UniProtKB/TrEMBL annotation:
Signal peptide (from-to): 1-26
Transmembrane segments: none
Protein name: DUF5916 domain-containing protein
Residue ranges of domain DUF5916 in the record: 295-366
CDD domains xrefs: CBM9_like_2
InterPro entries hit by this protein: DUF5916
Gene3D superfamilies membership: 2.60.40.1190
Amino acid sequence: MKFKGPSTVVASALSVLLWLSASAHAQVGSQEPGQPKPSVVAQTQPRSIPLADASVPLLDHPLTLADFPAMAPRPDLKDKLGHLTQFIQNTPVDGAAATEPTEVYLGRTNNTLYIVFLCFAKHPELIRTHLARRENILKDDFVTVNLDPFQDRQRGVMFQVNPSGVQADASWTEANGYDYSYDQVWDSDARITSKGYMALIALPFRSLRFPPTGSDWGAVFWRNIPRNSENDFWPRVSANVSGQLSQEGTLHLNGLAGVTGSHNIQLNPYALGQSEHTLQTQDPNNPAFSTRHLEGTAGGEAKAILKDSIVFDATINPDFSDVESDQPQFTVNQRYPVYFPELRPFFLENASYFATPLTLLYTRNIIRPEFGARVTGKIDRYNLGILAIDDREPGEAVPAGDPLAKARAGFFVGRLSRDLGKGSNVGLTYTDEEFGGGANRVGGIDFTWRADSHWTILGQGVESSTRQNNPASAAFVFPTGYHAGPATDIQVQRNGHSFSLNDEYQDISKGFTTLAGFLQTSNIRSDHLHSTYQWYPKHSLAQSIGLETNQNIAFDHAGNRVYHYSTFDPFVLLPNNIVIAPLIGQNSDTVGPQNGYPLPASRNFTENFGGFVARGQPWSQLNFNVQAIRSGNVNYNPPPGQSPFLLNQETVQALITLNPLRQLTDDNTYLLDRDHSVKDGQLVYETQVFRTKLNYQFTRAWSARLIVEYDSTLANPAQTSLTRTKQVQTQALLTWLPHPGTVVYIGYNNDLQNYNHQLCSVITGTRTCNPGRPILPRGPAYLNDGRQFFIKASYLLRF
């Protein structure tokens, strides 16, 4: 069948976008010189919170914490600095005065912007702080500045410091919140005093992007006080208004002419030396170990910035040896694929430029890239994102004689959006994955409309076109034959102090596929509704009392019900961010012959459940999040020839962080999923995961990390087709990180699993692997199927 390109819907969407662009330019062209450009939303919706302003004076010397003895500026400096006070609570009591005073002093030189927070505390001994890895400070007291140099009220950059001076930085978008993959070079300092603590944020202008003309920046200042479950802001950021930058204040950096923004060129090369022992399974009839000693490689990234607006990134032979393993999730007996977040820095950076209601780019699908390029940035009201990258994994996962051995997959993703007033935009997205003559292409239009300070509507319509790769190859990348079809996503969101709601409707056709993205299932129409309502009692131990509900229902396109999930939980918020919530609800799953099971008709399984959630940080040394549920479940992996049946399920999820020492962080995760047959009470399967991550911070630059994870699945072969598995993973890493981009790693990774030492099921009387049975059969003992020792160093060059 002839391969079709993207749908004509995409062409129509492009026409709409161009029409909107021309219309907006016509409006802007008619304004008076020097006047602000009109906002589509602002013309009909008055601003509910007045603008706040602050000046940033020019200083004749750098600012340090020594300029603030006794938590006050020196007398000769006091009148030379910008000054902010009167922080207002966002939580727990929206609009109330902060319980602890906060002052901010501002100044700049021709090279650096200086921000000093003076955070007063009645009981400074209760301040929470740790000497931790960079960006691991969100459970501590901390201060933040969110800068919006372009004043578009949609994108910003955040800089955070805890009372130990540990840094965190992130990009911010109103639609997606934080993105901690953003890293910049800047300086910080902090110290605890008898009156509270002080924190200095020193931002070199060469680490920032800002427009070449104009000297007014948007800004939000924020102090977090976890012992009170409190967040204070200047200017006021109301929980009753959607967004943060939509409520920003204005910094006047008078006289920025001649001040240079971010470095135009950055090079970040790395060198890697390693010894590696791995199990190679490309040939199912000849699995074998590969050992390489003292192997060296190199690569790196390059960045070029055009007029402080467009960023060009390129990578050659990226290495991810230092990236930690995934946070555990339940993965056994799941009806749909499980989403694991991206952890690799190159793919995390500027990921928000590609975010849409449907997940059309899921970079975990790109496994072993060698070359890649990315373009992101903003020109006037247009936001641009382009990614082109290869993947060696599909061609390396097949035997040497395969027609597609050593072939590469290619990915191309493009997105263009246009801002339409405060918080609204319209955009186009196109993705393409090509491999071995096959392809998956997706394109369409999306929009975000901020109707008012509470309500936002998002939507997306796309079509896909997919054809299979070379059928003579064992590489199964694309589904057999040709498939095409549309997909639609509509979301209605309400954000408010008391009442919040998110309702998402999806219609995914049977032929729709996005292989560059993430899709749980096709051929489904679903609606997912989540809502909360909270009361804020006065003069009570409880800071808020609320009700939360989730209602999810789905049907396929033939009218068969797929599932109906309903949960209801009251909750109470106490000081120290403690939340207690009982859970009750009812789920039902429907399966039938349409799902490939030997059933004469669809069968519905009803699953009642109850449990509780408890989380909080009662002391600075302890943070916990525990969930325990007893419910029904469906056995989606029955023995061959049998149908799914109902289970009694018990699950526990526990995440406990201990900080016994200021420099030591111990993150512990425990998962339990135990299921018995409702019919006869027999154990069907039990999975357990225990993971501990220890991090010792010698200094802000030097740290040591150890991760140990144990996974096990016990399976009853009379009740399930699951097999018994055991796995122990270990990662040890010594890090020297003086600033982002310049780093030295010394690491060791090891993996043990209960594989049979023969590595395959042999034909009786021979040593030949049986091609009719899967490789890597399980056995009683552990086998080391992978270990790596490496030394990696990189250095950031900025021009």
